Amino acid sequence: MRASLIQIAVDPAESPNSRRARVASLVAEQRGVADLVVLPELWPVGAFAYESFEAEAEPLDGPTHRAMAKAAAEASVWLHAGSVVERAPDGALYNTALVFSPSGELAATYRKMHRFGFDAGEAVMMAAGDALVTVPVPDLPLGVATCYDLRFPEMFRGLVDAGALAFVVSAGWPARRREHWTLLARARAVENQAYVLACGTGGTHAGVPQAGHSLVVDPWGEVLAEAGDGEETLTVDLDPALVATTRDRFPALKDRLLGLAPPRR
User: Fold this and answer.
1) CATH code of domain 2-255
2) Of 86, 148, 162, 190, which residue is the least packed, with the fewest Cβ within 10 Å?
3) Would the CA dihedral through 8, 39, 57, 111 be positive or negative?
4) Catalytic amino acids?
């Protein structure tokens, strides 16, 4: 399987509609190149552009859904389309990831469970999701996580128990904590013996410089590819069999205690 991570640079001068059209073109260009395409967190509006969340919130079938569904079908790829500010029917806002099949059908949604900001920003503006989500991508089932989730290892254990062989983490991670981003992505790969596809943003969100440095980590913790600070596409070949091989040769997961379920084989 071949995966492409498209690290979008968010420019405040670019409107969300213009960015949707531009990103849709970037996804469509992956036809014949990748089987799976991954986008960052909240790229239509910017992960730290809190003042725009209310105005730019959209229903699940809103403009980002329509643009990304079409792009996935044009490229014939599995598309993790990053996340949007979702306005639920009851008016609540969620940070919601959208995953599309190669036919353009909505295959899964994931409402971010761990909201960043402590007592401000996303943590008070958005409701929390309450369900782990996996996507049955052939040969490489994906566990879905978003940005701040990366700091909570118990979530990734749950995704392993649900059958995930790879984790897709979309993010708007700030530059001042870039070392944490790389360290945590590698840690989640090592401790779960799974691929980590971590796709962040470049540019600046509401005055907050972004870390960039999207990366792909293999089940042994080796970094297969890493981006720089700006807009960039990483394309990496993934071997689903490497997950099973790693778990067989170094079977640490079977030694888990504390009453947790053993991972699926």
Assistant:
1) 3.60.110.10
2) 162
3) negative
4) 41, 112, 147
